[in-house]
Amino acid sequence: MGDLTLVINLGSSSLKAALVDSTGAFLWHSGRSIAAGEHLEDVLRQWLEPELEPHRERIGLIGHRVVHGGERFTAPTQITENVLKTLEQLTPLAPLHNPPALMGMAWGRAWAPSLPQWACFDTAFHSTLPAAAYTYAIPAEFRQKGFRRFGFHGINHQHIAETVADRWSEQDQDPSTLRLISAHLGAGASLAAIHGGRCIDTTMGFTPLEGLVMATRSGTIDPGMMLELMREGYSTDQMAAMLQKQSGLKGLTGFGGDMREIREAAEQGHASAIKALDVFRHRLVQLLGAMAASLGGVDVLALTGGVGEHDRTLHGELARALSWWGNYATMVIPADEEGMIARLCQRQNDRGPSAAIG
Fold first, then answer.
1. Who has greater pLDDT, 93 or 277?
2. Taking Cα atoms as reference points, which of 3, 31, 12, 1 lies closest to residue 338?
3. Which residues lie closer than 8 Å to 218 by C-beta, 6 or more apart?
4. Which pLDDT band, with edges at 50, 70 and 90, does 93 fall under?
5. Residue 14: its pLDDT value, please?
6. What is the rounded CA–CA span in Å between residue 289 and residue 31?
């Protein structure tokens, strides 16, 4: 078997791919956006296949990122016909993200039918949430249909948890007692409260709409607003577009959700940009406080994602706002979904097929 893991990370309008060796080193790592009207199958065939051809004989397995695994998938899972059928049934839970992942799996099975393929789920790391954290206060008939909090960005939150635990151990600290908040701050944003390596709370819920203010997503809002919009005649498609693509920082600024552009506009006195930053920061600090409460204190705050890693102004703002936490460490850790997927797949492939389907 080859020594390389091919990682396919498909978003709603992007494709990232990587070749990772058994030591975790990247041999190749690239990505590209998928333009409106462009077919994913064509991108896979015309862009990805030529990139991979020089390394084809060294590829031993393929790992895929899947946003939503529901309650059925709580660990990396080898892809079989039955698994594919189950994943198709989960498509309504992540209609923008799961279908591209399924296309990627279909491509992989056609391109290299003899290679084992594995699916890694953004929801899996949050499968350790206690019932009190994942249960919505709604009637039993709806809870029995699967309406509960799942959490997302779990692949990168797990990468952060493992990285911080390693650094903690190097300082002769016991990682089993580590109280960590992982702050994944990018176009999508979520927090995870992690105690001793296990996620015990998170900010996203049944979908990636809950929680923090994001680039174009609203984050948590009063559901009564949605009821009012329904009474006014708005369709579910209209509300979905508004909440997912027209809200968040974009909705607050009126011109976009890129944090760098918003910072520049705010420095020039743009009132809506200043308000957007105030709202973003207020919700972030509010929910960081909630995660700290779930943990009973904080040892490490880890910042990751495009905003979390690079916005130095935010780093200073958080240090001032969270001074009441007392003695805690802040770490800035680059996101690494592709590397984490490779590690998860290699570990699970060495163990044999996963029994992660209930």
1. 277
2. 31
3. 209, 243, 247, 248, 251
4. confident
5. 87
6. 35
| Rounded distance between C-alpha atoms, residue 77 and residue 355, angstroms | 7
Please determine whether the domains at 4-121 and 171-327 fall in the same fold group of CATH: yes
278 in catalytic set: no
Q: What is the largest CA-CA distance in the chain?
A: 60
Lowest mean pLDDT among 78-82, 106-110, 242-246, 353-357: 353-357
pLDDT grade for 354, boundaries at 50, 70 and 90: very low
User: How is the chain split into domains, by residue range?
Assistant: 4-121, 171-327
pLDDT in the model for residue 12: 76
User: DSSP code of 156?
Assistant: H
Question: Scanning the structure block, which residue is given the tokens 């905003």?
Answer: 307
Q: How far is CA 207 from the centre of its chain?
A: 11
Decide: helix, strand or coil at residue 119.
strand
HSE-up (13 A, CA, CB side) for residue 254: 8
Q: Which one from 122, 201, 299, 311 is the annotated catalytic residue?
A: 122
pLDDT for the residue numbered 1 = 65
Mean pLDDT confidence for 31-48? 91
- Tell the CATH topology of 4-121: Nucleotidyltransferase; domain 5 (3.30.420)
Q: Which one-letter amino acid corresponds to residue 115?
A: L
Q: Which CATH class is domain 171-327?
A: alpha beta
215: Cβ contacts below 8 Å, ≥ 6 apart: 186, 187, 188, 248, 249, 250, 257, 258, 259
Please state, in angstroms and as integers, the Cα–Cα distance from residue 238 to each residue in 53, 214, 232, following that order.
43, 19, 12
